[in-house]
Amino acid sequence: MRVLVTGGAGFIGSHYVRSLLSGAYPAYADAEVVVLDLLTYAGTLTNLAECEGNPRLRFVRGDIRDPRVVGEVMAGVDVVVHFAAESHVDRSIAGAADFVSTNVLGTQVLLQAALDHGVSRFVHVSTDEVYGSIDEGAWPETHPLEPNSPYSASKAASDLLARSYHRTHGLPVCITRCSNNYGPYQFPEKVIPLFVTNLLDGKKVPLYGDGLNVRDWLHVDDHCRGIQLVAEKGRDGEIYNIGGGTQLTNKELTLRLLEAVGADESMIEHVPDRKGHDRRYCVDWSKIANELGYTPRVPFDEGLAATVRWYAEHRDWWEPLKKRAT
Ligand code: NAD
């Protein structure tokens, strides 16, 4: 079996590749993995360093928007797990063009190549942000798409294209929509690694607005196990929400991070709110739990403590990336 992983040098994609190659997914124990990644500012081969020399891994530096390179890597592929995307909301507010071209056009190029090569499963990794913002309760997969940022709008557009390739052409697509992830190897512009690395450097942490925006935090390992269940057992054309993390306001999250590094509230710098900032996200993940037996495993306190420790012990990983990003 051959699995094509797009964006496999990014945060979540590299966790998936490391897990797969280390035998965490027994059904794919012998699978060959092809990673297609452009190595934008967000992708780095150091995320795959522990897999270096593994004969089951082939890395191809290339753009998912390029039909030639996508056609070449798609040959002989059975399963596509599509992570590659522009993923940072703040960057999409500063400039949305790359989000539209990579997330929308890039996904269409992949879907077409997957169709041309007859792949048997295409997992399109999406986000709960496509649903918009919800004051109370939780979104089922049938909720209308009401994305509010250029990032989430581009992801929603890619979800609809993925759906259309199933409905029109019968491509065996599944879509996953997950809540906020945390864990090692997350690029230090996202809130948890940004705050932890700032605090490790004795710098303040910028808290948006009143700090009361709510997010559901799920460990990246739980997200990847959910994706794997969908890859193996998901029904064609179906959407699966992935959640079950811990809901916290940004203020509560910040207080936990301050405590973890032994700092106090004087390290918070209140900054103007993000434009169009979604107030609350919350997915109903009963479908993947009931149909595929998914359940999150990593308790938040343990996962967060391990994550903070990882950043403290891996300055060599994040310092160059943080310099590159500014
Ligand atoms: P990331 O930004 O860390 O990684 C993205 C990867 O895609 C990078 O390695 C980058 O080099 C690559 N890439 C970007 N443009 C490319 C292109 N044109 N061609 C080839 N490769 C390209 O992102 P992440 O946080 O790992 O997110 C992965 C996926 O999961 C995304 O699709 C995102 O929308 C989704 N998601 C993320 C979260 C989260 O909390 N981070 C939650 C739910 C869903």
Describe this structure in words.
- With 326 residues, this protein is of the alpha/beta class.
- It has a single domain (2-183, 219-245, 278-298), classed as NAD(P)-binding Rossmann-like Domain (Rossmann fold, 3-Layer(aba) Sandwich), CATH 3.40.50.720.
- The protein has helices spanning 11-21, 67-74, 89-94, 97-116, 150-169, 191-200, 220-233, 250-261, 286-292, 300-313, 315-325; strands at 2-6, 32-37, 57-61, 79-82, 121-127, 173-178, 180-182, 205-208, 214-219, 239-242, 246-249, 268-271.
- The strands form three sheets. Strands 3-2-1-4-5-6-10 form a seven-stranded parallel sheet, sandwiched between helices.
- Helix 5 (150-169) links the parallel strand 5 (121-127) and strand 6.
- Helix 1 (11-21) packs across helix 7 and helix 6 runs parallel beside helix 8 (250-261).
- The longest helix is centred in the first third of the chain and has 20 residues, at 97-116.
- The mean pLDDT is 97.
Question: Briefly, what is this?
Answer:
The protein is built from 11 helices and 12 strands. The protein has 326 residues and is an alpha/beta fold. α4 runs parallel beside α5.
